[in-house]
Structure formats: C-alpha cells, structure tokens
Amino acid sequence: MTTLRVAIVDDHAMFRTGVRAEIDGPVDVVAEAEDVDSAVAVIAETRPDVVLLDVHMPGGGGLEVIRRLHLRHPETKFLALSVSDAAEDVIGIIRAGARGYVTKNISGPELLAAIDRVAAGDAVFSPRLAGFVLDAFAGTIEIAQVDEDLDRLTEREREVMRLIARGYAYKEVAKELFISIKTVETHVSSVLRKLQLSSRHELTRWANDRRLI
Amino acid sequence: MTPPTATPYRRAYRPAERRLVGGVATGLADHLGVPVLYVRLAFIVATWFQGVGVIAYLLLWRFLPLQRPDLSPGLESATRRGLRSGSRTGPTEIAQTIALGAVGIGVLLLIQSTGRGINDGLFGPLLVGVVGVAVVWRQLDDVAWSRWMRETRGWAFASRVAAGGGLVAVAALYFITKEGGWGAALNLASALVVAVLGLGLILGPWITRLMGDLSEERRERVRSQERADVAAHLHDSVLQTLALLQKNAGDSATVATLARRQERELRSWLYGNDEQPGDSLVAALRASAADVEDTHHVPVEVIAVGDASLDPDVAALARAAREAMINAAKHAGVDRVDVYAETDGQTAHVFVRDRGVGFDLAAIADDRMGVRGSIVDRVERHGGTATIRSEPGGGTEVALSVPVRAPEAVPTPTEGVTP
What pTM was estimated for this model as a whole? Predict the structure, then answer.
C-alpha cells in the first residue's frame, strides 16, 4: 500500500506544526497552506489524497476551498478539522463535499485512522456530527422506502447515527447491531450522501433556521 | 424545541442572504414549507392575469421585513473577518429562475399580442416602472444590509438609485405623453399624481427604513454593551485560568480539567446560546457534565438531539443521568464519558456510556444502593425506564427514558422553533 499524501490547511501555524509532527511518517504530509487562495493553489499543484481542512480561515473558510476544488479535483478527499462547534458551519462544509468532521482535540492515532477511512472513500462521523445529522433529519422517522429516498434516513441508518452519537466506534456499532464494519461504513456513507444531496425542505428549513446554505 | 421565545407566532421574513431579487419568494417558501420553485411559479402564473403576481410581489416586498442572520458572537466575528463563506445562491437556482422568468415573460407577451392582456398603452411604461422600482428597492435593502455588515456603501449606490429613479421617471413621462390627447388641466393633474406616486414609491421605503434603522441601532447599542461586558468577563476568566495553569503545571489532570473548563466556557459564549440549567433537559445535562468534569477530572461529552422543558419527570431523568455520569467518572476509570440525549416529543432518552472497567450487574445489583436508588428507582417512579448494561472490562451504558408530557409548555416541532 502506498503512503497516503496529505495536505494540512489551517491558519494557525502552531496547529499545522503539531498535526504534522503527529501524523508525518505513517502518512506523507506534502503541503501546508494558511488561507483559501494558497490552499487552492497548493492542492491543485500537489494533488494530495486527503486534505485536512480548517472550517474557519481567511478568504472564506474551508467551504470556499472545497467549492473551488471539488469539481476540478473530485479525487481529492476533504476531512474537516476544527474547534468550531457551530452546527451551521459543520453541516455546511459537509454539504459542500467534505467526507467527515473531527474536532481538533482528536488524538494522533484516531486522526490517522480517520485519514485512512476518508482516503478509502468512507465517511468519518464524530459523535457531534452524528448528533447534528440526526437533528437535521429529525421528524421523519417511520416509513423508510417512499419515493423521496434522499430525504429521509432509513431506520437502520438512524440506528447507526444514534449509536455513533452515543459514543460508539464503528466497530462497536457493528457488534451492537450484529452487522459487519463494512456495512456500518456503507450506512454512514449513505447518510453522508443524503446529507449532501438532499434538498428536502425540512433540511433546508433546519439549515435556514441555523442560517446555513 | 427550546422553550417558547418572545414571539410565539411565526413571522415570514425575506432572508437577506439568500435573495435573488427581493427575497420574497424564498421567504414565502420558507414560511409555507414548500420548495421555492413552486412559489416563483405561482408568482409568474399570477402575473399572466393582469399582472397580479407582480403586484403581490411588490406588496410583499414592501411589507415583509428583511431578516438579517442573527449569529453568535464567534460566528459574526468570523464572518466579518472573512473566515467563513457567506451563503450564496447557487448558480443552478439563478439559471432556473432566469429560465422561469423568460418563459413567464414569453407567455405574458403572447397574452399581450392576443389583446387579452393589460392595455397596450399601459403595458410598456408599467414594465419599465416595475423594473425601476425593483432596482431602487433592492438598493435600499442592500444599504440596510451592508450597514449591518459594517461596510461602507460605495459609488454604485448612487448610480443605481439614479438608474432606478430614471426608469420610474421615464415611465411617468411616458404616461403623461400618452395622456396628451386630454385637456391641459387633466394633463397637469395626471402628471402631479404620477409624480407624487413616483416619489412615494421611491421615498416611502426610505422613510420606513429610517424608522426601522433607529430601533435597530438602539438594539445594536444594547447588544454591543452586553458584548463588552461578556468579553471583559471572559478576559478575566481566561487570565485566571492561565494563572492557575502555570501554578499547576506539574499536575496534568488538573491542567487538563482547567483547560477543558475554559474551553467549554469560551465555546458556549462564542457559538452557543446562554441557557440556564433550569431551562431544559439539555441545559441541565450540560451543567451536570460540567460539574462532573470539574469534580472528577473526566471529560464528559454531551450530544443532544431535540430538547424538552424541565417538568418534574424530565427533571428526575436529568438527575438520574447526573448520577450515572458521576458513577462513570468515579468508578469506570476512563478518560471520557459520552452522554447522548434525544427527545422526539413523546419520550426523552438519555444514554450515559463509558468504555471503562464495567462491573458484573448480577453480583452487585442488590447492595449497590447508589445505582438502584438514585438512578433506576428515581426514573421508574416517574413512569420511565432505566436499563444498565455492563460487563467486566466491557464498559457500562446506562439507558434512561421518561415519557414527556405534551403540555402547552412544549412547543410542537411544527412551530418552526429550532431545536
């Protein structure tokens, strides 16, 4: 397996140095950037596999980076990394195309695992993000298989989200629900897809209430 | 589902940051809970009938207040410093609306050509006048908007108002020349009426805006004073924490707890709402988590979906959850406790989970008064359920739930009150 190439985008130099020290080695940190313009330039040039992206940054924040790069380089995966707990920004960056969200107090090994997961095309949901997502889709529980598939979570996806919000790791979720980790990953990815694609008006309204989109 | 706010009824607004023209369609769509496309379609179809759609649109534009996002201090500051992207209307939506508008105008012209539409002599000037009014009003909205954004208004402002005013004037002139065949007195009268109408259209919003701005400024002043107070308070508390950190530099557990407490405080001010422990289930859980963290030096992470007001049952649930947190922090020997609360309107659930040493339930179930009395019995007395799952080495999870009464105190989810 080749070493993953990672870019760190954050406006705090000290934080970049800290993350680099923690993950360089198992992965290859190929680029750093401190604002939107330099991030777009350096990512387009070095083509990393995974970009660790701060939510708040000069030039429009992580959202702007994804907006500018996502269509041109769909193979680059974004993982949001932030101290921001503002639901609107977290959901906003996921809706823009990030494959997950972790908070900055995450440990080195956990961050590496998250990078692997994102690089493999899976989604990384922290308990907090799972809570936001349940919140966003709240109110449409029962009937799963109606026409507007994108607009609601299936009961199974909801269960998975709930367990993640309760602090279960993917492995523990799998054990709890008697399914394989791969299946858990599939459910989480499908929730991510729904979150990104759904235009359900309740979701829009939720977003609207929290002033996003 | 926060407790009811000052305005219990829903109001329609024009969302300032998502409008294409006036924000009327978007605002209505939000209010009615239908896709914005349908609303636009309705306006356009209504326009085919003697321009009713346009009239309705202009009236709503005038009477729906512009809504500026009310952000938490942290977000507002981040927005001002350009650290986050402002919202933006997607290109597809713009294209869709232009296409819709083109079809609408096409059909309108078709109707005109059959002679069933608005009187031909009026149609041209009306069209020009409406566009002029739209340009001027949009500009006024932008001024109010940019004042909030604390940006200076530029050159474009004057020229655009001039362009809009010009269009309205052209329309008025056209009217008068059209009326040329009538007597001179009538001519003058109509000119006057049109002029007064034109002035009213242009100045009217200005005046209402001015009045609105006054109260807005007063509110802003109060808000900035409050902010200064809180900033000073935080400043002090951060300094205090830093001093304590230096003093306790050798004791990593204390350092971590102090740092975490400070983080929590800052975070709740920057991104949260200032909830009081007595307000709701989630507020009570957060307060308990903070206490447990301080006392036992174990981080407690609270994730909440939905909220319930603190009636006696829910209060018992919150107290039981607190005991569960204390137990986990004290006995589990872990560096993290997860709390998840979910309220769906009928039942409130709280899960307290740790990945710690766990215990054998069967062996101690009878003599552990703490667990029995303070957690299980307390919840069951209030008609709820409590299950404790634990195995030695496998961690512990306490699952609690009580039914939520559905009194007037709990607003229904359809109220549009944010959870």
Answer: 0.67
